[in-house]
Amino acid sequence: MERAAFEASLALDGFSETVERQLTPAEATPEHSHPFDARLLILSGRLVLALGGARHSYGPGEVFDVPRDRPHAEIAGPEGASYLAGRRR
Q: Residue 80's pLDDT is what?
């Protein structure tokens, strides 16, 4: 998905905040949860999402959702990862 289409879909679905973030190569976030729904668009690199006992790898142009209050972790690929995230409270 292209960035403009992603941002338009965020607005349509009630995601009012956006943040852009970069992870360094192999950077991992410990398991955590958020008090909001999140939708992410991978801009570059690869990101592995560990959620509910499963792991899935996402690359540029791919989109995924993380529901509020769901424990998850993120691991950047060997080249790092950058993403745009929408937040819906």
A: 98
User: Mind giving me the DSSP string for 43-87?
Assistant: EEEEEEEEETTEEEEE-TT-EEEE-TT--EEEEEEEEEEEEEEEE
In the chain, the number of structural domains is 1
pLDDT at 82: 98
CATH label of the domain that carries residue 51: 2.60.120.10
pLDDT tens digits along 45-89:
999 999 999 999 999 999 999 999 999 999 999 999 999 999 999
Q: Is the dihedral of CA 54, 33, 27, 47 positive or negative?
A: positive
Q: Residue 88, exposed/middle/buried by CB under 10 A (0-12, 13-18, 19+)?
A: middle
Q: Tell me, what's the pLDDT at 18? A: 97
Domain membership of residue 71 as a residue range? 3-88
